[in-house]
């Protein structure tokens, strides 16, 4: 399929047989595919303007470029491999890999598919959920249709109700994440939920998970995290060796790529970054304002905010998104290595340290942001709220208070996936970054 | 540095020195605050409790004289030892601790999952060790002042599982018996045999079952604040991921929960330092000796250890594949 020019819909399902006029649905599919391809092309045209981009980024670009061709080849599941779609940050991938399945995270960032999602959800719903609904309901990206089951944690209210809406399109498995996660019973309950998920995955793949497979799956992800730790440490260097939007891309690619391949690619990038640091090559000037992005998730191709920040001369030094930093920073600790020990370690890793605002307390997130501000020497924080994303909006005041105490300025932006407010955002972010410069 | 391997080596060495030391003319005295049972013939170092209980069995006025000085001296030496190594006696030296750890290794090797007490149960029984400590002081005093029968002499030694068990390593089976002299001796020495049985059976379910009720732990916990070994936590760095709590053989929840306290040598802590090795957050936990830091939680070191598969007791190292 890849010979097709970008923007061309794949022949299979979208082209009508013979000269039959397109149905409304087919027209919609074709339109969304076209728009998505255009958005992706624009993003990469923009990226290419940056001559100093690390070479090793090409690997990650390839993954996302495939979004122009209906997402074919984005995931690497073999034909007989079962694909398990996941949402949010609570679905234990170790279990999917251990059972021989292929996990793919379906959290979505496309404006056009979110318009389809409006057929299912109220206008005020968060654009991410709408976008996900759109991709689930219509054959736009290949891997959404490839899923043999999807695991959906009951995190926010939108996600909670999305399960039923997805049912006509997917084999849905709801995971009940305890909101007050610290209590003893909540931990026990969540462990049972993880075991229930394990049984379901085993049923789908037809393979029983044994101690050895689980340990290997854990190890694979830990190796990926080893490179992530290295990568994030390199990002602490001033001047920054890599742009924040490139870093977002790298971590976002983890959604789709096979974990070992991704680890290798990140290793190559890390090596290149080390070389760049040694040679004094950097991606942003030393005095670029160091920005931390936090708040509602940002998923490809919704990268307008990072682009604006860095076009205006700032550097996105770190982020605190569940689609990148939060997703990969907490670690499973295998202690005794028995089945029960490993399952408990996995279960707890996904919930106890998680800074997701759908949990009752904000301590984890507050402390994490404080640490990021210190470690990455952050000068300003941009708090991103997707319209309709209540959990992040609710926590805003607490984080604002924390940052005030730390003496770090914060800007709240409220937006969705549409490109319409780009100019307005640019003006506000520019003014914010100007005040940061004034402080130096 | 892999602390758990080092710890096992130190435990094995301590075991050899304490139980067989006499053969090499090693004598660390009989004032050690650890269950290196003094009933082991020709031992290299002995538990202070047996002498301590006998010294206490005196009429009160005698303590004003020479007896008092003797008692203070014994207590002083035990306390000094307790300050130097504080809880490391339990995590790194105690023979009963080692035996439990070895049984745990056997359990893991057999792929048997551990279990933990409920938080409530655990909390409820925390005071048992202090009650035992109080009794092993009060009963001898009672004996010395004619209030309690001589059958209760050195009551804790009669009950202690180390007494029947450890002499076995020197081929001495005389202690492995129930003393039918009187009801108290029967109860106490029978209890000791039951505790030995419990130690073997519970080790296939739980870790360090006996330690939670050990009066020696209660004694050592009096030195938590001033002992030279310390376990520090920086709550700001901690994500409360629970890895430390899961690794802790003493099921200490504070190690995970605590956000403000700095000194984490809690009353049940045995300074095994498994928590530090299980912690993936840079500098969240740190072990120090006399203010000198020798082990810090570190993400990269944590992942390297996990990869080598030698994190805890059970994950054996496997040949590395590409
Ligand atoms: S019996 Fe127990 S308390 Fe008594 S000396 Fe031996 S180890 Fe110590
Ligand atoms: S608590 Fe355990 S390790 Fe410490 S003295 Fe008692 S039996 Fe030994
Ligand atoms: S392992 Fe470390 S980060 Fe996790 S709860 Fe314990 S101290 Fe905190
Ligand atoms: S708190 Fe740490 S050092 Fe203390 S007993 Fe538990 S794991 Fe060992």
Description:
The complex is a heterodimer of chains A (about 450) and B (about 325). Chain A has about 450 residues and is an alpha/beta fold. Chain A has helices at about 10-15, 25-50, 55-65, 95-100, 110-115, 125-135, 140-145, 155-165, 185-205, 210-235, 245-255, 260-280, 305-310, 325-330, 340-350, 365-375, 390-405, 420-440, and strands at about 85, 100-105, 150-155, 170-175, 290-295, 315-320, 380-385, 410-415. Chain A has a single domain (about 65-440), classed as Rossmann fold (3-Layer(aba) Sandwich). Chain A is built from 18 helices and eight strands. Mean pLDDT of chain A is about 90; it is low at about 1-15. With about 325 residues, chain B is mainly alpha-helical. Chain B folds into two domains: about 5-220, no CATH class; about 230-305, 2-Layer Sandwich (Alpha-Beta Plaits), CATH 3.30.70. Helix content of chain B is about 45%, strand content about 5%. A three-stranded antiparallel sheet of chain B has the order 1-2-3. In chain B, strand 2 and strand 3 (about 290-295) form a beta hairpin. In chain B, helix 2 runs antiparallel to helix 3 (about 65-85), helix 2 packs across helix 7 and helix 7 (about 130-145) crosses helix 11 (about 215-220). Chain B is globular. At the A-B interface, helix 10, helix 15 and helix 16 of A face helix 12 and helix 15 of B. One iron/sulfur cluster binds near residues 240, 243, 278, 279 and 297 of chain B.
Short description:
The complex is a heterodimer of chains A (440) and B (322). Chain A is an alpha/beta fold and 440 residues long.
């Amino acid at each position: 399929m890849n010979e097709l020019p970008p923007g061309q819909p794949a022949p299979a399902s979208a082209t009508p047989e013979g000269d039959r006029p397109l149905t409304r649905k087919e027209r919609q599919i074709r339109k969304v595919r076209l728009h998505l391809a255009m958005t992706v092309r624009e993003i990469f045209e923009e990226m290419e303007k940056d001559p100093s981009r690390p070479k090793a980024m090409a690997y990650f670009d390839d993954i996302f470029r495939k979004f122009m061709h209906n997402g074919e080849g984005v995931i690497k599941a073999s034909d007989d491999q079962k694909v398990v779609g996941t949402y949010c940050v609570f679905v234990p991938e170790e279990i999917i890999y251990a059972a021989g399945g292929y996990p793919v995270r379906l959290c979505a960032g496309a404006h056009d598919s979110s318009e389809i999602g409006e057929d299912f959800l109220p206008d005020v719903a968060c654009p991410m959920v709408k976008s996900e609904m759109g991709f689930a309901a219509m054959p736009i990206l290949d891997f959404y249709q490839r899923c043999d089951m999807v695991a959906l944690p009951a995190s926010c209210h939108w996600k909670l109700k999305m399960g039923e809406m997805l049912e006509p399109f997917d084999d849905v498995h709801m995971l009940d994440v305890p909101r007050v996660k610290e209590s003893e019973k909540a931990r026990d309950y969540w462990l049972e939920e993880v075991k229930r998920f394990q049984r379901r995955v085993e049923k789908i793949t037809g393979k029983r998970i044994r101690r050895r497979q689980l340990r290997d799956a854990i190890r694979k992800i830990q190796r990926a995290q080893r490179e992530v730790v290295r990568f994030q440490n390199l990002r602490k260097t001033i001047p920054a060796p890599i742009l924040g939007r490139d870093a977002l891309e790298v971590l976002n690619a983890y959604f789709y790529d096979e974990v070992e391949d991704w680890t290798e690619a990140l290793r190559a990038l890390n090596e290149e970054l080390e070389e760049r640091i040694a040679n004094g090559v950097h991606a942003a000037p030393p005095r670029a304002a160091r920005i931390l992005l936090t708040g509602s998730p940002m998923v490809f191709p919704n990268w307008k905010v990072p682009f604006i920040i860095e076009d205006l001369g700032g550097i996105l030094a770190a982020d605190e998104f569940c689609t990148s930093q939060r997703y990969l920073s907490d670690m499973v600790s295998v202690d005794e290595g028995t089945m029960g020990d490993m399952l408990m370690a996995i279960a707890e890793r996904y919930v106890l340290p998680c800074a997701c605002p759908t949990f009752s307390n904000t301590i984890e997130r507050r402390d994490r942001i404080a640490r990021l501000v210190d470690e990455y020497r952050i000068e300003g924080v941009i708090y991103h709220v997707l319209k309709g994303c209540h959990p992040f909006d609710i926590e805003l005041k607490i984080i604002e208070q924390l940052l005030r105490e730390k003496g770090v300025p914060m800007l709240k932006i409220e937006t969705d996936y549409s490109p319409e407010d780009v100019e307005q955002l640019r003006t506000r972010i520019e003014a914010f970054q100007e005040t940061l410069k004034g402080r130096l | 540095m892999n602390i758990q391997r080092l710890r096992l080596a130190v435990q094995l060495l301590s075991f050899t020195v304490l139980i067989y030391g006499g053969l090499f003319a090693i004598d660390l005295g009989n004032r050690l605050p650890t269950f290196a049972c003094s009933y082991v013939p020709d031992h290299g170092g002995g538990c202070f409790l047996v002498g301590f209980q006998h010294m206490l069995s005196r009429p009160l006025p005698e303590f004003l004289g020479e007896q008092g000085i003797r008692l203070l001296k014994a207590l002083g030496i035990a306390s000094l030892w307790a300050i130097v190594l504080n809880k490391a006696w339990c995590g790194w030296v105690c023979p009963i601790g080692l035996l439990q750890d070895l049984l745990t290794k056997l359990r893991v090797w057999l792929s048997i999952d551990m279990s933990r007490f409920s938080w409530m149960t655990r909390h409820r029984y925390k005071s048992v060790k202090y009650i035992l400590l109080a009794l092993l002081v009060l009963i001898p005093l009672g004996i010395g002042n004619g209030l309690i029968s001589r059958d209760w002499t050195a009551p804790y030694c009669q009950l202690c599982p180390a007494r029947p068990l450890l002499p076995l390593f020197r081929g001495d089976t005389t202690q492995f018996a129930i003393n039918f002299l009187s009801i108290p001796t029967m109860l106490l020495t029978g209890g000791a045999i039951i505790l030995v049985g419990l130690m073997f059976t519970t080790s296939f379910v739980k870790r360090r079952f006996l330690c939670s009720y050990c009066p020696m732990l209660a004694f050592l916990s009096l030195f938590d604040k001033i002992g030279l070994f310390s376990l520090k936590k920086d709550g700001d760095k901690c994500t409360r991921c629970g890895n430390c709590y899961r690794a802790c053989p003493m099921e200490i929840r504070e190690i995970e929960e605590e956000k403000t306290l700095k000194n984490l040598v809690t009353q049940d802590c045995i300074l095994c330092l498994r928590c530090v090795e299980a912690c993936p957050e840079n500098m969240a936990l740190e072990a120090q000796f006399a203010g000198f830091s020798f082990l810090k939680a570190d993400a990269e070191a944590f992942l390297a250890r996990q990869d080598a598969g030698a994190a805890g007791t059970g994950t054996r190292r496997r040949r590395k594949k590409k």
